[in-house]
Structure formats: C-alpha cells, structure tokens
C-alpha cells in the first residue's frame, strides 16, 4: 500500500504544469531522435543532458526519461516505412512491419507498433511499482554464467526462424561473430583482427552495420527495382487507428509473452535488442500462423515492439536500485544522477522518495502522452510514403550518412556504412538473411565476454552452466529452442506411426 | 585526407575567430570537445560530466563544452584522436591510468608525450572490498583465508584487463604468494554489483564506485591502497567513515596505488591556451559542486599544473612500465 501512496505523491509532482511541459518537449525531441538513424536515445540524452543542470533533479529526469520514451516510439517509424531501423531494437520490427507497409498497410503497422510499445512499457512500470525491491534482488543473481545463458537463449531462439535454409542463417551469424571479435579483446586486453589499422580498434559498431546493411542496402534494391515503391498506393484513412485497435486484443497471448520476455531482459540486464529478437522468435514459434511471419503479419510487429519497450522501461530499475545501467541510455542517465547530486543504489528508494516516485509516475504519464502524440501522427507518417522515391531516397541517404557520422564523429564510419550497404545488397540478392548477422554483431562480443568470464571463474569447468536452477533452466530452454525443428520432425513422425 | 582537411579547417577557424581577441588573453571561440577515453557511467565519465555541468551552470566559458566518449581500444581511440588534433585548442581529454597502461598493453602508438599536460584534478583511491556477508573483518583475515584455500579459488573482480585493477591484483599475488583468479568486467559499477551478488570474492573498486553498496550494508571495505588513511571523516555506513578504513600497509599488504584524474590538451597548444584552461579548472575547483564530488568519492584532491604535473606524469609512466613488465602485461607477450 505504501507504494501506492508514494505513487500518488509522485503523480502530484509530475502534474505540475512546468513538468508536463517538459514531458511534451521531451517526447517530441525523443521521437525526432528515434527517427534519425544513428542518433540513438543514448546520444540524444547525452547531448541534452547539459540543458538539465539548472533544473531540479525530478524535473530533469522527467524530461530526459521522456526523451528516452520518445526515442523508443520513434525507432519504429523508419523501420516500418523504409526498412531502416532508427534504433537497434527496431531491427526485428522491420521483419513484418516493412512488408506490411509495402502491402499498403503502413498505418496499421504503425498503430500496432505504437500501441504495443505502450502496452509493454505499462506492464514494466506496473511491475516496477509493485515489485521494485524483489526485482532488484533478482538482478543480483545474474553472474557471468547466467548472462551467457541468456545470450545463448537469444541466439538459439533465432536459428531456424527464417525461411532461408538453416545453413545460410548460421553462415550469416558466423560472419557477424567474426565482425564482433574485431577490436579490443576485453578479457586479455589485447587488440584482435585490427591488422595495425587504428580505425578498427573500436571494432565494428552495430549501429553503422545496421544503417548500412538495412538502409543503404534497401536503397540499392529499390533503385534496381526502378524506384518503385508499392506502399504509395495505400489510401490513408484517419480511422486506421480504431480499426487496428479492434483487431489487437486478439493477440493478447503474444503481448503477454512479449511483456514477460521484455521485463526479464531489461532487468537481467541484457537490454531491449535481444528482447525484441527473442520475443519475435517465440511469437513465430507459438503463433498459429507462424509460417506466414515475415510476409507482413501484425503479430510480428506486436511481439518485438512490446518486448523492446518493456525491456527499455525495466532497464531503468537496475540503474536506480543497483547503480548498474541496463542500457546505454540508462548509463547516461546514471551520469546525470551523479551531477544532480543523487547517488543511485539501494538507498535511493529510501532517501529520495520524491525523485524516484516522480520518475515512476512520469513513466506512466510520459508513455501515455507519447502514445497520444505518435498516434495522432500516424496518418502523417504514413503519408510520407506518398512522396516519390526519387525525392525521399536521397534524403534517406543523407540521413543515413549523418547518422553513421554521429555514432563516433568519424568520417571513417561513413565509408564503412557504404561498404556494409553493398554487403547488405549482395546478401539480399543471394538470399542470405541479414538479421542473424546483425544479432551476432550486437550480442557476439557480450556473449563471448560472459562465456570467458564464466570459464575463468569456474577454472574451465563447463558444468558452471548447469550449476544452479536459474542458469540450468535457461540453458535447457536454449537447447530446446535450438533443436526445435528436428524435435518437431521426430514428434510428427512418431505420431504418424 | 579528410583528417588533414579537417585540421586545416580547424586552424583556419581558430585563426579567423581569434582575430578580435588576439591582443587579449586567449579564449575558446568554438564549442570545446571534452573527450572521455572510457565508457559512459565510469569514474572518468562521471568526473567529465560533473566538470561540464559546473562549467555550464556557472557560465565559466563563453562557448559550450561537449562531453564525447571515445572508449574504443581501452581508451586508445580517444588518445589517438587527441594526438591527431595537433594545434586544436578546442579539445580536452580527461585521463585515467589507461593513459599509461593502454599503450603498453595494446601497442597503440600513443604516449602522454603526444599531448600537452594541463592539470591534475585529483587522484583516485583504491579500496579492497569484500561482501558484507563474508566473515572477513580485516585484510589480514582475508589474506589468511586466501592462503588456506587452493590456488586460484579466490576471485578478484575488476574493471578491464591489464589495467589498474589487475595491476593491484598482481601486486597482491606477489606479496601474498597466493594465486587469484582475476575476472575483468566492463565498468566499476558492474564490478561492485557482481561482488554484492557473490559472483566474485573481492574487488579493488574506487570509493565512488562502491560507496552506494557500502552505505546499504552490502559491502565491507578492508583497507585502502594508500600511504595514509582517507581524509573524509563523515560517518558513511553505520559508525564508519572513510577515514576509519586502515591502510593496506598497516594490514601487512604493502601496496600503494593512486590513479590519475588529469586533463590534457592536443599537442602544440600555446602557453596562453594552456593557461586559459588552468584558470578555468581552478574556477571549477572552487565551486561547491566540485567539493561535493571530492567529498562523496573520497578523492585525494591534489591539484598540479605545469612542470610539476609533467614531472609527476613522467614518473608514473616509468612506474607503470615497470609494473606492467613485472606482471607480463606488455604488448607482444
């Protein structure tokens, strides 16, 4: 009960007109940041952080966290309309979101994405409100072995998901692993695969790869197809929001699973990107029309968006309660807390009640306001597709280049982006899936690091991955996912006999 | 190509913008980039962002200050950027011990001599921490337990590989004759939480990285790796203050290690430019926000500039070369 009293106190803080104004500004800025590829939530928050130094900590965190929500919403827009993920966690949204746009259902896809984001965030906030202390102690149980098991599960839930032959999926994934290995080996502290080329000491940044593979690759493909874009024929109808909403409750099961996956990933803290991939994989397996995923199924948009938003929101909890950021944006916010004179950690909830509950209340209101703002813009966003590609194509190219440059302020990255673009084009032409490559670049080095930390701790004993109930269960789940298809065939054959 | 063009442009801009104030003392005419050669949320990043916050809040500079993280290659990315920005007075970098360790461990061609020293802002302390649930009350008890266990059983968690945390670990191993298993993590906050979750047995976190968990009663400090005890006497956890933590030397662990938190500029900076930033940092140091940070993080607030500072850095550079060599951490090993 005490939580609820605190929460209402928090609402009272947030509902001051000044704070509401900051909230709206934050959401609008966030959506813009989310739309621009490369300029992610973390960069956006870092750039705007200085603006908040003169504000009270509560007002500052309200504005910055609203930028974060806005970026989470905005990331979906370009993935659906142009197949260019504005944020890493929107990659999975492109799988079905973009085919929907191509089929003239951009409005529906956007509505589904925004609504699911809201549902995911709401679920996570309710969890934070009620279970904060419990959840924080759960996060403490994640050592290197547990972390590796989570990454393992993410990879396994992905294999055999696409229509491409598993061998091609694995080949793409392996290329990704090699790319993830470039740069500093964090366990030995030595440089790997840089060939003395100092531009490579940072490794291949995932954002550059995504902008190139998807963005530039997509532009090259569209050019080859004679600049046609089928989505243009779509009729934009303002009632599309209502029509889609009527359809959504049917997929409550997918939503709920995705919420749970998202919250878990956010706390553990693996982050929003694996959450979205994993949730897409699970939805494809469990859905009755899983076979049709990838052709423009609304469920394929709901699953990753719900999970990404649930993870993004719950990632703030370990930051507040433990001082460990669950996402890059949370890491920048953490820096902010220090400047405002707050010390994140177990005592923050006790000593800074107004701040913590003001933030939690702003999560409710910020997301609600974000939903209203982006939904009213759905017809507007969908109308962008009506602009001829010969105009919008070059604009996208420029934004991609700016995005790639912003990641590290380096012109080398822009060149790298173009190379990735050609790679993406060639892979698409040869029917190699891009998603496993991307997944491996994002999670490859983290998985490797967790694996090698576990091996150091256990002195080389693989049994550490089954040493307690938590890690054992996750590993078993992963193995089951990995051998799902062969197992299914075996079961089908047994049943047939 | 690009870099050369950018440099020319930067020089042109500086000269063009500098004309009206040529006669007066130098001051920045463009936003100043503040490079952090480490990830977001770490000790160096926090300090850089606090400085940025103070400069912005108190209007200490005519132009903006922008913090940019260049953490690639254990910070090598950031140092290379500074090295390549010769003559650009609108760039600063905050350094930690990786100024010495990264070039030695990775062979990245950069050294402090490629930069212009501006000022030492503080020295960061290292404390030996264990989980509060564990029975060890003193460093001596902890070392005794380490000696009783099979080699490699005790796990030390630390930030990065072949960096300051591992240097201290190796020093501990040499002194006690017990092999420990060193597990590198990405950041100091994560290391502290791994200790709270009992995934490692001890850490050598900086005070500011572990203070929140200490106050919450999750961690216990055993000793500080300095010649003298910490100066902050406010009660932090229960009736213990930073000043109540004994030195490691008094516990039979004769190891001292302090980490530089200092500011450098690109090579080729003029005297006026360096003086401008020294004055700026003096003003930063006078603010209550800075004093609060020094207090919260139990920093050693030594301030040094000019030749003193350069001499100090040179000594430390040589010391690290010896330490890294002894530990077998030099590139190519």
Q: How does the SSE layout of this entry go?
A:
The complex is a heterodimer of chains A (497) and B (333).
Chain A lengths: L1 H13 L2 H19 L5 H8 L8 H26 L8 H12 L3 H35 L3 H13 L9 H16 L1 E2 L6 E2 L13 H19 L15 H8 L4 H16 L4 H15 L12 H16 L1 H7 L5 H12 L8 H4 L1 H24 L1 H6 L5 H20 L2 H19 L5 H24 L10 H14 L1 H13 L1
Helix pairs in contact in A: 1-17, 2-4, 2-17, 3-4, 3-15, 4-5, 4-6, 4-13, 4-15, 4-17, 5-6, 5-13, 6-10, 6-11, 6-13, 6-14, 6-17, 7-12, 7-21, 7-22, 8-21, 9-19, 9-20, 11-12, 11-13, 12-13, 19-20
Chain B lengths: L1 H17 L13 E5 L6 H15 L7 E5 L6 H9 L6 E5 L2 H9 L9 E9 L2 E5 L7 H10 L6 E5 L4 H13 L4 E5 L2 H9 L5 E2 L3 H9 L3 E6 L10 E3 L2 E2 L17 E7 L5 H15 L2 H9 L7 E2 H22 L6
Parallel strand pairs in B: 1-2, 1-3, 6-7, 6-8
Antiparallel strand pairs in B: 3-12, 4-12, 4-13, 5-8, 5-9, 10-11
Mean of residue pLDDT values of chain A:
84
Q: How many domains, in number, for the residues of chain A? A: 1
Q: In what range is the share of β-strand residues of chain A?
A: under 5%
What is the total domain count of chain B?
2
How would you describe the overall organization of this protein?
- The complex is a heterodimer of chains A (497) and B (333).
- Chain A has 497 residues and is mainly α.
- Chain A has one domain.
- In chain A, 72% of the residues lie in helices and 1% in strands.
- Chain A is built from 23 helices and 2 strands.
- Chain A has a two-stranded antiparallel ribbon with strand order 1-2.
- The longest helix of chain A is centred in the N-terminal third of the chain and has 35 residues.
- Chain B is α/β, with parallel strands linked by helices.
- Chain B folds into 2 domains: 192 residues, Bordetella uptake gene, domain 1 (D-Maltodextrin-Binding Protein, domain 2, 3-Layer(aba) Sandwich), CATH 3.40.190; 125 residues, D-Maltodextrin-Binding Protein, domain 2, CATH 3.40.190.10.
- In chain B, strand 10 and strand 11 form a beta hairpin.
- In chain B, helix 4 crosses helix 11.
- The longest helix of chain B is centred in the C-terminal third of the chain and has 22 residues.
- Chains A and B meet through helix 3, strand 1, helix 15 and helix 21 of A and helix 2, strand 2, helix 3, strand 7 and helix 7 of B.
């Amino acid at each position: 009960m005490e939580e609820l009293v605190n929460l209402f106190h928090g609402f009272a803080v947030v509902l001051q007109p000044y704070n509401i104004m900051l909230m709206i500004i934050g959401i609008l800025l966030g959506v813009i940041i989310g739309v621009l590829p490369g300029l992610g939530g973390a960069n956006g928050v870092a750039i705007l952080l200085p603006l908040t130094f003169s504000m009270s900590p509560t007002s500052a965190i309200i504005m910055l966290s609203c930028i974060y929500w806005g970026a989470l919403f905005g990331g979906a827009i370009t993935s659906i309309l142009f197949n260019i993920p504005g944020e890493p966690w929107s990659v999975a949204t492109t799988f079905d979101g973009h085919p929907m746009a191509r089929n003239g259902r951009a409005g529906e896809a956007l509505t589904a994405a925004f609504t699911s984001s809201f549902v995911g965030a709401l679920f996570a906030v309710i969890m934070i409100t009620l279970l904060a202390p419990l959840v924080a102690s759960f996060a403490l149980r994640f050592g290197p072995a547990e972390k590796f098991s989570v990454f393992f599960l993410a990879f396994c839930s992905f294999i055999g998901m696409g229509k491409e032959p598993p061998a091609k999926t694995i080949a793409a994934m392996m290329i990704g692993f090699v790319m993830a290995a470039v740069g500093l080996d964090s366990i030995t502290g030595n440089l790997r695969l840089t060939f003395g080329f100092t531009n490579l000491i940072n490794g291949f940044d995932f954002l550059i790869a995504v902008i190139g593979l998807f963005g530039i690759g997509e532009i090259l493909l569209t050019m080859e197809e004679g600049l046609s874009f089928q989505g243009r024929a779509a009729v934009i109808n303002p009632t599309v929001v209502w029509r889609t909403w009527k359809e959504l409750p049917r997929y409550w099961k997918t939503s709920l699973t995705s919420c749970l996956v998202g919250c878990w990933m956010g706390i553990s803290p693996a982050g929003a990107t694996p959450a979205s991939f994993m949730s897409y994989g699970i939805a494809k397996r469990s859905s009755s029309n899983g076979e049709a995923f990838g052709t423009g199924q609304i469920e394929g948009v709901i699953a990753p968006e719900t999970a990404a938003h649930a993870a993004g929101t719950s990632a703030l909890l370990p930051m507040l309660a433990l001082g460990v950021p669950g996402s890059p944006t949370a890491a920048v916010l953490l820096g902010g807390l220090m400047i405002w004179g707050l010390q994140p950690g177990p005592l923050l909830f006790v000593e800074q009640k107004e701040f913590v509950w003001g933030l939690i209340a702003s999560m409710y209101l910020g997301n609600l306001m974000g939903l209203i703002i982006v939904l009213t813009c759905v017809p507007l966003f969908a109308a962008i597709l009506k602009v001829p590609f010969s105009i919008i194509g070059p604009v996208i190219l420029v934004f991609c280049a700016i995005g790639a440059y912003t990641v590290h302020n380096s012109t080398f990255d822009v060149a790298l982006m173009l190379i990735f673009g050609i790679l993406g084009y060639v892979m698409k032409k040869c029917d190699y899936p891009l998603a496993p490559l991307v997944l491996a670049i994002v999670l490859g080095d983290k998985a490797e690091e967790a694996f090698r930390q576990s091996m150091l701790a256990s002195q080389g004993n693989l049994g550490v991955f089954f040493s307690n109930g938590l890690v054992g269960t996750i590993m078993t789940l992963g193995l089951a996912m990995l051998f799902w298809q062969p197992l299914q065939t075996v079961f089908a054959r047994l049943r047939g006999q | 190509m690009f870099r050369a063009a950018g440099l020319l442009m930067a020089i042109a801009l500086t000269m063009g913008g500098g004309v009206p104030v040529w006669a007066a003392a130098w001051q920045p005419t463009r936003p100043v980039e503040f490079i952090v050669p480490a990830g977001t949320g770490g000790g160096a990043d926090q300090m850089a962002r606090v400085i940025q916050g103070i400069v912005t809040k108190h209007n200490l500079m005519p132009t903006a200050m922008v913090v940019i993280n260049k953490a690639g290659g254990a910070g090598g990315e950031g140092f290379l950027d500074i090295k390549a920005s010769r003559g650009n007075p609108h760039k600063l970098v905050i350094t930690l011990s990786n100024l010495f360790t990264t070039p030695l461990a990775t062979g990245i061609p950069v050294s402090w001599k490629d930069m212009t020293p501006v000022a030492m802002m503080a020295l960061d302390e290292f404390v030996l921490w264990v989980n509060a649930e564990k029975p060890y009350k003193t460093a001596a008890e902890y070392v005794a337990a380490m000696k009783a266990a099979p080699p490699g059983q005790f796990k030390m968690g630390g930030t990065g590989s072949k960096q300051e945390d591992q240097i201290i670990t190796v020093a501990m191993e040499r002194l006690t004759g017990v092999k420990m298993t060193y597990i590198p993590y990405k950041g100091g906050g994560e290391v502290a939480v791994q200790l709270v979750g009992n995934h490692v047995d001890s850490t050598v976190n900086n005070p500011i990285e572990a203070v929140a968990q200490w106050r919450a009663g999750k961690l216990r400090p055993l000793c500080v790796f300095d010649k003298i005890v910490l100066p902050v006497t406010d009660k932090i956890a229960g009736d213990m203050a930073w000043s109540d933590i004994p030195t490691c030397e008094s516990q039979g662990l004769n190891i001292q290690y302090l980490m530089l938190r200092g500011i450098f500029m690109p090579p080729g900076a003029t005297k006026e430019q360096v003086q401008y930033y020294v004055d700026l940092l003096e003003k930063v140091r006078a603010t209550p926000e800075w004093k609060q940070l020094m207090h919260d993080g139990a920093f050693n607030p030594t301030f040094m500039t000019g030749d003193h500072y350069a001499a100090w850095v040179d000594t430390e550079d040589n010391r690290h070369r010896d330490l890294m060599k002894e530990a077998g951490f030099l590139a190519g090993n």
